Give the backbone structure.
Amino acid sequence: MSGERPPFAVELGWIVTSQIDPSRRGAVEDAADHMKRTLSEILPGYDWRVGIAERIEPADRGPAEPVLLLDTAERERDRRNWDFVFVLTERELKSYTRSVTVAAPAQAYATAIVSLARLTDREDEAEVLSRRLYALSMHLFGRLNGLGPRESGFMCAFTGPRGLDGMNGFAEDEKVELRAHLDHVADPRVEETGKAGGRVGFYVRSLWENRRSLPKSILRMRPWAFPLRLSRLTTAAGSALAVLVMTAETWEVAANLAPPAVATLSAVALIGTSGYLLRAQRLLARSGESAMREQRAVINVSTVLAVALGMAVTYVAIFALALAGGHAFFGDPLLASWTGERATGDPPLRPMMAGYIAALSLVIGALGASFEPHGYFRNVTHIDEEL
């Protein structure tokens, strides 16, 4: 009927690395085809398409860095206009939070990185590999569309390769959530509307179109956990805090600063350190030779805001520790002998000192964080979870 809505095309891209044995390549193609058939049955109304591309991988058999495979996925997506990407490698994945990582979903990139190295015990088990890869891909597809772990079906908590044998089916409420997310995916992207209006206009339109999902993108990066997950940042900032709070000159300088000066110094430290880390760790997705993309714009803005929030959390933590230490260990007579005035004056000395020390410690902490491995910092901001 002419009034019926034409099916929206949803393209699933599979990138298969050259190191995958041809006998296992067939199992991968079977899993991709099985996934397409299942999605067509449970989510009709979409034109499900599957594309498979091969990528030449170095002969190095060491662990693969997931974020580097994310870059590969982004380049291939730009070329082929895929909606979701699955990158498959025979190499182990480099893991930062687990002893072994089988898969790494990145919802912001609509990409999942999968290692075939441990999905089966023996390389000749093509049927087992196909079945487990199919279940894992369906699980990851749910993750990329916002579904969390459930008690049963494809979304039950991932417990390892053997646990994939029992995964099957999406619940009805999960199908509703998937359809809602896919409807947004199927909407024309900003770059497809021809109404960008320059780079600034393009970013504004991209953020407006993704205004509801942007906060979730930031929260997925868990900026509140930066002080715990970035050990070099915490160590450098903590060391600076310990030295500065014990130094009489620090208290003397703080006593001679006005509140606006401390506030300005703190703001400059927050903005400066956030910008420095974004540049030093190369956290922003770059367009390279490709045109501007809505997804890339959202990723960039989410990353900027997440890093800024992470540094703000670090600043607040240092401020609180410095303030508590000032009250606990530095009495008014001692501070008076150092600064020539009482700590209870106007403005109070201890909050001024805490703000001053927090700003300096944040800068030193950012210098320490710049030495975090590039892959690890991007793993913290762009990989949702290691499975």
